[in-house]
Design a protein that fits this description.
UDPglc_DH_euk; single chain
């Protein structure tokens, strides 16, 4: 959510766990935070 509040920031997420990476790229996120799914979906496919 930092990127939404501070669009001038660059946010990089790195993980070595293939299962966690797949979870973040799936339709069901591995954690719940109100509004997070919409934010993630709006930024997917940009890099």
């Amino acid at each position: 959510m930092f990127k939404v509040m501070c669009p001038e920031m660059t946010v990089t997420v790195v993980d070595v766990s293939e299962s966690r990476i797949k979870a973040w790229n799936s339709d069901t996120l591995p954690i719940y935070e109100p509004g997070l799914k919409e934010v993630v979906e709006s930024y997917r496919g940009r890099n």
